[in-house]
Fold this protein.
Amino acid sequence: MVGANLRGPMDSNLSSLSDILAFHAQAGVDAALEEAPVNRFATAAAARDLKRVAPQAQEARPAPAGARPAAAPVASARPAPAPAGASVLPMPNLAAQPPDEAVMAAREAARAAGSLEELREILERFEGCPLKRTATRLVFADGNPKARVMLVGEAPGRDEDAQGLPFVGRSGRLLDLMLGAIGLDRTSAYIANVIPWRPPGNRTPTPQETAICLPFIRRQVELADPDFLICLGNPSAQTLLGVTEGITKTRGRFFPYDTGTRTIKAMPTFHPAYLLRTPLGKRMVWRDLLAVEAALKAGEGQ
Ligand code: URA
């Protein structure tokens, strides 16, 4: 049974901190999100109570001039008492910046970068993406920024977050083999991600987080100015190429990509993490990469 040997924190066998840490690691918890613990059961109860109170409070508000009188409220307009301790619950401040403002700030910041180094510095200072608060560090890029081929993945994982470099974990090792198959390595390819901060626990980035990071990766491609872009996996292909079909349909074909200064060829292909789970896909990636190699050798894009 899945998780059958996981011990709960109330278990009397948990006698030491290392037991508790081991429990969390087994449960897949590998990132600390806040300085202090938050009782989510209490926050959920408070939110439920707030929901119950909100419609009642609306009924109690005076009707605007000219409005039809509302039917008499069935329930009393008195707010339900807050659960004990609710007023002192720490609320995560996720709305520090309204979403649209954060996207606009990202666009402006990305435009201001005149070089890849400036872009990295701007990203180091950018506070508009909530992922920055939970990640250990920025994962900007690896490889040769002057390379003719740029590869873009989705977001850093645990190893990348620890080292500050993209694709250095298991998928990274497979990516190196994939590159080697067409005679490339990190001196002849440039590697980045759509999202430059690790999402906590490797969760999927939200559409909002992706929208905030998009101007930065677009500017990064523009400044690196590769001849070919390889989108690793569906999120990268859909975000950068604006395609809606899934990766099984889009892979293996060149798409036009407007860098901002010129149009280059972009090839979506399977993400190495997918290949680790589905080795049969390697044949198709091999074909996709051969197409890129042929185009490179033909001098296309130069
Ligand atoms: N997966 C990605 O998409 N990017 C990385 O950097 C590592 C794993």
Residues 153-157, 160, 166-167, 171, 193, 273 surround uracil (CB under 6 Å). Residues 48 and 148 are 54 Å apart (CA to CA). The beta strands are 142-143, 149-153, 190-193, 228-232, 255-258, 263-269.
